[in-house]
Amino acid sequence: MIVWLSSHVLQSMCRYARDLSPLENGGILLGWRSGQDRVVADMRGPGPHALHGRHCFVPDHGWQVAEINRAFQASRGDLDYLGDWHSHPDGVAEMSDLDSATLLRIARRVSAPLMLIVAGSETEWTPQCWKVQVVRPLIRQRLIATPQELKIFDPPSV
Ligand SMILES: [Zn+2]
Fold it and tell me: Is 158 within the bounds of a domain?
């Protein structure tokens, strides 16, 4: 499976990350599923009541749910929630224990959600993406977060 990431979305995430560095920033990924692949075509930021720390980020959940509904309706169902993203200022693009716990919690509401992390500083930010997968579905179901291949694409201008 491949996560296709719009270059516009990546630029926006880097801008959000830089604006609040050294505090973490984040938001949600919007797009659609194409077979196993995901196409991230749009995003939203943290929302007005999000909390930003050096090593934690808590989004404004109520605002995000409203934004997801707005985007879904405005796009006639094309744009749906695919997962969360957040920044690791001056850090590495790796999942912390807290990040894994957050992603597994999201997986109880949404099937196979994504977590995208942009790590870096100033103008140098590196994205990396994880997806929740079910392992041993027939024996004892267990969910794990695995890194996914990420490809950047330039969206058409219309
Ligand atoms: Zn994190």
Answer: no
Q: In angstroms, what is the span from residue 156 Cα to ligand 1's centroid?
A: 31
Contact 128, 147 (CB under 8 A): yes
Give the span between the Cα atoms of 26 and 83, in whole angstroms.
11
CA–CA dist 92, 98 (Å, integer): 15
Residue 10 in contact with residue 152, Cβ under 8 Å? yes
End-to-end CA distance of the chain: 27
Whether residue 155 lies inside any domain: the answer is no
- Counted domains in the chain: 1
Residue 14 domain flag = yes
CATH number at residue 17: 3.40.140.10
Please report whether residue 25 resides in a domain.
yes
* 130-148 pLDDT per residue, tens: 999 877 767 777 788 999 9
- How far apart are the CA of 60 and the centre of ligand 1, in A? 16
**Residue span of the structural domain in which 33 resides:** 2-149
Find the 73 Cα to ligand 1 centroid distance in Å: 30
pTM for the whole structure: 0.93
Strands (E), the chain: 2-6, 26-34, 37-44, 51-52, 57-58, 80-89, 114-121, 124-135, 142-153
